[in-house]
Specification:
- Chains A, B: Its EC number is 2.5.1.18.
- Chains A, B: InterPro entries: Glutathione-S-Trfase_C-like, Glutathione-S-Trfase_C_sf, Glutathione_S-Trfase, Glutathione_S-Trfase_N, GST_C_Tau, Omega/Tau-like, Thioredoxin-like_sf.
- Chains A, B: This is Glutathione S-transferase.
- Chains A, B: One of its GO terms (biological process) is toxin catabolic process.
- The structure is a homodimer of 232-residue chains.
- With 232 residues, the first copy, chain A, is of the alpha+beta class.
- Chain A has 2 domains: 73 residues, Glutaredoxin (3-Layer(aba) Sandwich); 132 residues, Glutathione S-transferase Yfyf (Class Pi), Chain A, domain 2 (Up-down Bundle).
- In chain A, 56% of the residues lie in helices and 7% in strands.
- A 4-stranded mixed sheet of chain A has the order 2-1-3-4.
- In chain A, helix 4 runs parallel beside helix 6 and helix 7 packs across helix 9.
- The longest helix of chain A has 27 residues.
- Chain A is globular.
- Chains A and B meet through strand 4, helix 3 and helix 4 of A and strand 4, helix 3 and helix 4 of B.
């Protein structure tokens, strides 16, 4: 049994699972990692998250906590004496939560939309939508980082985790489409931030290699295209 | 200028706007209410929420805060000396956030699905989905309220607000479909809870009358059905 009796049910390619693991790393917490098999769900997962049946689940003692951003807040609140994950000021917290929600509800669905797009025109429109989202996030970064390395200061925090967990998938999308989303001209702040984020001690061991992730992406893209194919 | 310089941009039929107003009422905070006109967006709204252009927006001094549940958390954190809205224990907070997210992502979309359903079979399936969600929420209520009036104790809090704001729309849906979702047999806990919630001092003045809301519903349903009508 780990010191804090913490288990994470997850899978290495999942950006949402990465959020929980980064938060645990920031607080220097040991945990057991249970890798779910792609395409099936363990008994423990079905018992722990009967409503959504989705990873990640953090199990603390005998208590399951579901939904990645809720897990991050939980870890920050329970181990409050460790480095802070949420900003300390309520307005900064609201701003971080706002952008995290934007990323989950708008930006990442747009990124997935590139892979699912049917035809060149739809693909280009999806790419444009992702780039517009990145312009908003660049602006948010400039405003909240105020020249520091991360969204809310000198250390990675809530919004860094919420957004940074998608960097592997962003790189895979860049590679598969022969484009560059983050560069020093269009998104100078985010380009620098991405390097710092991936090199961070809490992140580097859980950020998947782009090559390895691209293999998973090929399987998912084939599924997405198959499901969305127009009837003949 | 109100004592705390608080403005709410909203519209009376919006359940999301109600969340912000209930939270302000719990903390006994005065605010100016700016009613947005149905079908158009004020300059102040477009300036304050340029990303989503949606109500509610809370403007505190010169700072806009967007997204209803983020506003509720902001109010709870800034006026921390007033009655607490979020539960105090991290696990209870995670549980409340989990169900609030379930309501927004699954349950309320299902409720809207009843009005948008094309044909009797689709309508019945949507009703069944809403009832299944209510069974989950009844179970959650029994577990977290532990015999008390509200989801996390003797006073209304975060999850009560997140769910309770939809009671007006639930009643309208019951009325329009000749069904009863909340009753003493299927959902004894929630049926009692709904009465207590609507009678609460922080709620009663912002909960719209079912008749008045039904008028708005007719306009929205006509729109929904029009948009989703199968091609002839």
């Amino acid at each position: 049994m780990a010191k804090n009796d913490l288990k994470v049910l997850g899978a290495w390619p999942s950006p949402y699972v990465m959020r929980a693991r980064i938060a645990l790393n920031i607080k220097s917490l040991d945990y057991e990692f249970f890798e779910e098999t792609f395409g099936s769900k363990s008994e423990l997962l079905l018992e722990s998250n009967p409503v959504h049946k989705k990873i990640p689940v953090l199990i603390h003692g005998d208590k399951p906590i579901c939904e990645s951003l809720i897990i991050v807040e939980y870890i920050d609140e329970v181990w409050a004496s460790g480095p802070s994950i949420l900003p300390s000021h309520p307005y900064d917290r609201a701003t971080a939560r706002f952008w995290a929600s934007y990323i989950d509800e708008k930006w990442f669905p747009a990124l997935k939309g590139i892979a699912a797009a049917q035809g060149e025109e739809a693909r280009k429109a999806a790419i444009e939508q992702v780039a517009e989202g990145l312009a908003l996030l660049e602006d948010a970064f400039q405003k909240t980082s105020k020249g520091r390395d991360f969204f809310s200061g000198d250390k990675i925090g809530y919004l860094d985790i919420a957004f940074g967990c998608f960097l592997g998938w962003l790189r895979v999308t860049e590679k598969m489409n022969g484009i560059k989303f983050l560069d020093e001209t269009k998104t100078p702040g985010l380009a620098k931030w991405a390097h710092k984020f991936c090199a961070d001690a809490a992140v580097k061991d859980v950020m998947p290699e782009t090559e390895k992730l691209a293999e998973v992406a090929k399987i998912i893209v084939a599924k997405l295209r198959g499901a969305g194919a127009p009837p003949k």
